[in-house]
TrEMBL record:
Its main location: cytoplasm. It comes from Nonomuraea mangrovi. This is Translation initiation factor IF-3. Monomer. IF-3 binds to the 30S ribosomal subunit and shifts the equilibrium between 70S ribosomes and their 50S and 30S subunits in favor of the free subunits, thus enhancing the availability of 30S subunits on which protein synthesis initiation begins. HAMAP family: IF_3.
Length: 195
């Protein structure tokens, strides 16, 4: 059932509790008087609470009300942070330099406020040594403890081992921090060397 007020030209009750355009209580008036007041003020008579006895109606500009509520909903959606899960894939026998590169990606994702799903892919005989993958995931979790925490512990899933790392700070905080850093960089003028 909708809680949105509705315009009701054919209200089948003899009287309504009327609320003025600025929220003031007018009182209980007949439906005809309420409609006449609405026409004089060039406003709409909107039923706000149909279940009340007598029903509550308000004088308002319904088009303006709909527009403002749509703008509030749009603003709320705009400020909403969407959690994104980024994925990094590793192999158990990863080269140290490659590990550092992948760790850098995980750090970047966590700083941005995103969750990271780390997947270790096992092939062939590597499947008989899942402890190698487990140790690699533990090492990665220890390397990024200041930025994130292990949200789901490593678990074997067929040929893969999966672990999820969540960020300590929320996406909105990360965005605000990034914007502040960008504004600070933009506000500083490059220093000119003195001769």
């Amino acid at each position: 059932m909708s809680t949105e007020p509705r315009i009701n030209e054919r209200i089948r009750v003899p009287e309504v509790r009327l609320v003025g355009p600025n929220g003031e209580q007018v009182g209980i008036v007949s439906i005809h008087d309420a409609l006449k007041l609405a026409q004089e003020a060039d406003l709409d008579l909107v039923e706000v609470a149909a279940t009340a006895r007598p029903p509550v109606c308000k004088l308002m500009d319904y088009g303006k009300f709909k527009y403002e509520s749509a703008m509030k909903a749009r603003e709320a959606r705009k400020n909403q942070a969407h959690t994104i899960i980024k994925e990094i894939k590793l192999r158990p026998k990863i080269d140290p330099h490659d590990y550092e590169t992948k760790k850098g990606h995980v750090v970047r994702f966590l700083k941005a406020g995103d969750k990271v799903k780390v997947t270790i892919m096992f092939r062939g005989r590597e499947q008989s040594r899942p402890e190698l993958g487990f140790r690699l995931l533990q090492r990665l979790a220890e390397d990024v403890t200041e930025l994130g925490f292990v949200e789901s512990q490593p678990k074997q899933d067929g040929r893969n081992m999966i672990m999820v790392i969540g960020p300590h700070k929320k996406k909105a905080e990360a965005k605000a921090e990034k914007a502040a850093a960008k504004a600070q960089r933009g506000g500083e003028e490059p220093s000119v060397p003195e001769e």
